[in-house]
Amino acid sequence: MMKAYDSNCIFCKIAQGEIPSEIVYQDEKVTAFYDLSPKAPVHILIIPNGHYTDLNDCREEDAALLGHILLAAAKIAGEKGIGETGYRVIVNDGPDAGQTVFHLHYHLLGGRPMTFSV
Ligand code: 5GP
Ligand code: ZN
What pTM was estimated for this model as a whole? Predict the structure, then answer.
């Protein structure tokens, strides 16, 4: 069953179209939209439509949803022309990872070479 809407959450509002954003993909499970302050030529956020705070908030029953998000990332990457040049998918989960918005989101980044640094 899909998680509930949280009226205090900015990404819930984006998924519902209550706050404007440049949506690149949406279906009954997920929404993808451009990051407000892009850190690469392509920087898209992919979120579940329901409110999950982070990965810790997910359960076994959410496995298909989480897989669906990754498949959406690959599909969007192809559509945005970075399927072959490469891309990175990142989840910042919790304080040490620098999570700032507490609605689970996957960053899809590409369009330039990246180094690996943490
Ligand atoms: P985090 O640091 O939590 O992994 O990433 C949150 C991301 O959400 C940041 O990259 C930030 O630029 C983006 N963001 C925050 N508020 C908004 C918003 O209102 N609209 C959009 N499109 N992106 C946002
Ligand atoms: Zn939310």
Answer: 0.97
